[in-house]
Design a protein that fits this description.
The protein has 601 residues and is α+β, with helices and mostly antiparallel strands. The chain has three domains: 341 residues, no CATH class; 126 residues; 99 residues, Immunoglobulin-like (Sandwich). It is built from 26 helices and 13 strands. Strands 2-1-3-5-4 form a five-stranded mixed β-sheet, covered by helices on one side. Strands 6-7-11-10 form a four-stranded antiparallel β-sheet. Strands 9-8-12-13 form a four-stranded antiparallel β-sheet, with no helix packed on it. Helix 7 runs parallel beside helix 9 and helix 9 packs antiparallel against helix 16. It is globular and about 80 Å long.
């Protein structure tokens, strides 16, 4: 057994063990929960996605139950197959001498190490793209039934994976048509049968879009993209260098650029098209397209195609270059391993959440689901459960019994992430809810899903929809980084709505004494604010002076029903020597109704 084969098998087995551990410990991601919701409404396609991700989840949960393993096992298996496909691609290219190096790269590349840990479309999308590349390369070499089958399976899997597979088709078409051998395939009838199968696999997605007035296509092509130049797009290459490690990112580009398009070998042209078009295409799109959602993984399809070229280049460079490359890759893999391991623990998620990372979408759901189930327990009949946004609803649905319907209000987040049309098609949206007979309801609101400036207006909208709505509890996760509210509503409720206080605080130093001061505003529509205090646990450290006039707050929310509005400003002087960096410090707002709410400092 060669040394590189041993290295590949070792890294693949270690990655399997790591991924399995992460599968069993990392909480359900927000999008995962929605795909699991789709798996309970099996269809060929949905407005946001083709059907394969939901089918994999349905298959996994049918075997392993409603568990993390059941949710993710399908994605995990597809991800584990991927490095082996890269071995065969290297062989087909005539680079068997670096086949295992290619496999190691496909296992350790930081963006790939976590592939398959979450039940997302990426594992099937990447596998489909590489199957198409492998099958296409083999067809250019020799027209066989096996090669055609691999190619056709890739086309079908890709169409059932994601809209983004369309760019793979563009790259493949350019690569095939760039050589005489590729164009000759168009004269071979079986090749057209494979293309027809691939085209037919898109039909369910087209039918769903036709039924929903093109909601999915409109979101993917128009709604989510500004299609104007934005300067932060210039950071996209830097982000790519970070998530692949700088040395490897530079090496991937160098290996691809050094590949000769004019090479008479047709397989070379197909490989270069498969690598360069996604790498360049998504790099350019990053400067004009969506800059609010995660997109750093998009060029991964191109990086995968470039790995055999990169592996060949590594074999020809100096020892120092190879050491630097493998060291960079190992460090990146270690950092990803630490990050994923941190996501698997509550303390780790709390730390990552304070750093403002995407850990936010992993945090709080388990705690909130338990909080809600406790509130519902024993109620007969159980109140109607309503969430304010699709992601919270999906997480509550994942944690609730199958018989529990979770309704969803019309929230900006539903439209921002392209899920409103799917909620409407299931009949769990606010429009359908309004047509139902009124019933006792429990509303769960993810307060921090909206910016502070939008929260008061959202409260008033809730009151218009549910007159007499009463705030009963709140829950805070990651030291208050995420906050959830619970409300109770009865059809016969009358009177004003009761809402929790809202607070804004800033720090500044005094001009004369250079001491820290806290100032801001606190509003409690309906009840009004009695006091604002700095507390640590149950110990009050300082009381704020509350009631100063704030014209800016008056202009921002002229409709506020706080009895003191706009005299809602406060200033607080902390005790001498107190460090405001203490994570246990809170600002406690007490309403005139003697309700209290703590806010992180």
């Amino acid at each position: 057994m060669s040394d590189w084969r041993r290295v590949f098998l070792f890294t693949w087995i270690v990655s399997l063990c790591l991924r399995l551990a992460w599968v069993l410990t990392v909480p359900v991601f927000g999008d995962e929960a929605f795909y699991a919701w789709e798996a309970r409404h099996l269809a060929w396609a949905y407005s946001d996605l083709p059907g394969l991700t939901a089918w994999l989840i349905a298959a996994g949960t049918s075997v392993f139950g409603k568990s993390l393993l059941g949710l993710r096992v399908g994605a995990l298996l597809l991800a584990l197959v991927l490095p082996w496909i890269l071995l065969h691609i290297a062989d087909t290219l005539g680079r068997s001498d670096v086949r295992y190096q290619t496999g190691v790269l496909a296992t350790l590349l930081p963006l790939l190490l976590g592939n398959g840990v979450l039940a997302l479309p990426e594992p099937s999308l990447l596998l489909a793209a590489m199957l198409c590349l492998w099958g296409g390369l083999r067809l250019l070499q020799q027209r066989t039934v096996a090669a055609l089958g691999i190619f056709a399976v890739g086309l079908v899997l890709g169409a059932f994976s994601h809209y983004r597979f369309a760019l793979v088709l563009v790259a493949g078409a350019i690569g095939m048509l760039a050589s005489a051998q590729g164009r000759d395939l168009l004269r071979w009838p079986p090749f057209w049968w494979a293309l027809a199968m691939g085209a037919a696999a898109w039909l369910p997605l087209w039918l769903v879009n036709a039924d929903q007035s093109g909601a999915g296509l409109r979101f993917q092509l128009l709604d989510r993209h500004p299609w104007v130049w934005h300067w932060d797009g210039l950071w996209y290459p830097l982000v790519q260098a970070v998530v692949t490690t700088p040395w490897v990112w530079f090496g991937l580009w160098l290996a691809t650029i050094k590949g000769r398009w004019r090479d008479p070998e047709p397989k070379q042209r197909l490989l270069l098209a498969a690598a360069l078009i996604p790498m360049l295409g998504y790099g350019l799109l990053g400067m004009f397209a969506d800059n609010e959602r995660v997109s750093f993984h998009w060029p991964l399809i191109g990086y995968l195609a470039a790995l055999p070229l990169f592996a060949r280049q590594l074999a020809d460079v100096s020892k120092q270059w190879r050491v630097a490359t493998w060291s960079s890759l190992s460090l990146g893999a270690l950092l990803v391993s630490l990050w994923m391991t941190a996501l698997g623990s509550a303390d780790g998620r709390a730390i990552l959440g304070r750093l403002g990372t995407v850990a936010d979408n992993f945090s709080g759901w388990t705690e909130v689901a338990g909080w809600v189930q406790t509130a519902i327990a024993g109620a007969d009949p159980a109140p109607r459960l309503i969430a304010d946004n699709f992601m919270l609803a999906a997480q509550l649905g994942w944690a609730s019994p199958e018989s529990q319907t979770v309704w969803v209000l019309d929230h900006p987040l539903n439209h921002k992430h392209g899920r409103a049309a799917q909620l409407l098609s299931w009949g769990v949206d606010e429009e359908t809810l309004q047509q139902m007979p009124a019933a006792e309801s429990l509303l769960v609101i993810e307060e921090t899903a909206l910016k502070l400036k939008d929260r008061l207006a959202w409260q008033h909208r809730l009151c218009d929809r549910f007159p007499g709505l009463q705030w009963i509890d709140d829950a805070q996760v990651n030291h208050g980084h995420k906050r959830f509210l619970m409300f109770h509503w009865w059809p016969e409720a009358v009177g004003d709505c009761e809402f929790p206080p809202l607070l804004y605080v800033e720090r500044h130093r005094g001009e004369r004494d250079d001491a820290w001061r806290l100032h801001g505003w606190a509003i409690a529509d309906g009840a009004g604010v009695q006091s604002v205090a700095l507390v640590q646990g149950d110990h009050v450290l300082a009381q704020a002076h509350y009631g100063s006039l704030l014209e800016g707050v008056k202009a921002q929310w002229p409709y506020s029903t706080d009895p003191s509005h706009p005299h809602v400003g406060f200033e607080l002087v902390p005790p001498d020597g107190l460090s405001l960096e203490n994570a246990d410090l809170r600002l406690r707002v007490t309403t005139r109704g003697a309700r209290q709410r703590d806010f992180p400092l």
